[in-house]
Write a structure and sequence with these properties.
By secondary structure, this protein is of the alpha+beta class. The chain folds into three domains: 120 residues, no CATH class; 124 residues, no CATH class; 126 residues, Trna Endonuclease, Chain: A, domain 1 (3-Layer(aba) Sandwich), CATH 3.40.1350. The chain has 17 helices and 14 strands. A five-stranded mixed sheet has the order 10-11-12-13-14. A hairpin with a 5-residue loop joins β6 and β7.
Length: 380
């Protein structure tokens, strides 16, 4: 362990200090970023082991110093730090903003980085994880805009949401699909070989809840990496693929920030259509997620957000999200999956407290609530 005093300030980048992160927030960001990188490195072996990513070591240095300054015993090694990461953040004794964590949030669930861990990787402005899927989507958007082809963009988004895992034959069929002809290179960039460490008796299995691969834990159990699937217990196998089938899996960043909220987007769009209203997904090259037009021509703009922590989501929205006025709308909503209410009953209230972009015309609610408001409107 290298717990030098110089680490407390030297790890603060220009972007982090400009965003006014507290020192302990920077520490959590570094640890979370390191855990994500460590998990990616370890996927081929199926467990976490050295060498460790530099952000994880820097995060440990900062945590050790913070503990010593407060008279607490710090973790003595990176392996002990991993044990800490499986415990609630509320027990770490860090100086964090009110509401930024709840009593149940951890960075690791076994060996799987949690949604909370993912969120803390985005707590600064210069996060590689924050940029990777944005670079790919920017490339996709530029290509589709140049061709004036919004339908190809919609087809690409649907592919990532509906097919997080594919065997080699299906993958080749998608590459040959005429609806994706403009984006063959981007489709290739979106997928990677499935980790053989997830195989059981020569087969890879997908989660019945979300379609992602079931992963092997250090206790030889198979679980889904999606925290909502683990919380629901809905992790029975849905599809099985032989390891000889050249299986591909959506990249981690795309699984978390495109496919996960995308499932809620498609589900919500289908429910709006059942109400008899017009729905357009990702209008005008993804100005927002959904444009709902009622019979009286009132328009709702909807942006679906799926984060475990409402405080971190609100801060991310404050920094990055403004509802564009074109295409025009009358009301706008940030909408959260109903399952988040089961994890935290005050989710919407906490988001509203910390989100600064809400107004009389921009609201926040769960899926069920926005649909109820739509039903009430249609009865008027």
């Amino acid at each position: 362990m290298d717990a030098t005093g110089s680490g407390q300030r030297s790890d603060l980048s220009h972007n982090e200090t400009s965003f006014n992160l507290r020192p302990d927030e920077v520490t959590l960001h570094l640890i979370a970023s390191g855990l994500i990188k460590l998990s990616e490195q370890a996927q081929s072996e199926g467990f976490l082991e050295p060498p460790y990513p530099p952000p994880l070591q820097r995060g440990l240095n900062r945590l050790a110093l913070a503990c010593l300054q407060r008279g607490r015993q710090p973790p003595q090694s990176l392996m002990e730090l991993l044990d800490w990461c499986r415990k609630p953040l509320a027990d770490w004794g860090l100086d964090l903003p009110d509401g930024s964590i709840d009593n149940a949030e951890c960075l690791l669930d076994g060996q799987i980085p949690t949604a909370t861990c993912e969120a803390w990787t985005r707590s600064g402005k210069d996060i590689e994880a924050d940029l990777s899927e944005e670079r790919l989507l920017s490339d996709v958007l530029n290509t589709c805009r140049s061709a004036n082809d919004p339908q190809t963009y919609v087809a690409f988004r649907r592919l990532l949401i509906k097919r997080p895992v594919m065997d080699g034959l299906t993958y080749q069929m998608m590459l040959a699909d005429s609806s994706l002809e403009l984006l063959i290179n981007q489709v290739r960039a979106a997928y990677e070989p499935a980790p053989l460490s997830a195989a059981r008796n020569g087969f890879l299995e997908t989660c019945a809840g979300c379609g992602n691969l079931l992963l092997r834990t250090r206790y030889d159990q198979w679980v889904c990496e999606d925290d909502l699937c683990r919380a629901s217990g809905n992790m029975k196998p849905r599809d099985r693929f032989s390891v000889r089938d050249d299986v591909v899996w959506l990249r981690r960043d795309l699984r978390r920030y495109i496919a996960a909220p995308g499932r809620a987007e498609l589900r919500l769009a289908e429910q709006f259509e059942r109400l008899g209203v017009e729905v357009e997904l990702w209008p005008e090259f993804d100005k927002y997620d959904m444009r709902v037009t009622f019979p009286d021509e009132e328009v709702w703009a909807i942006d679906v957000k799926d984060w475990r922590n409402p405080f971190l989501l609100a801060r991310h929205v404050n920094r990055t999200k403004r509802f564009p006025l074109d295409p025009p709308w009358n009301r706008a909503f940030f909408v959260f999956p109903d399952a988040r209410r089961q994890q935290r009953s005050d989710y919407v209230r906490a988001f509203k407290i910390y989100c600064h972009v809400l107004s009389n015309h921009i609201e926040a609610c769960f899926e069920y609530d926005v649909l109820q408001r739509a039903k009430q409107k249609l009865k008027q």
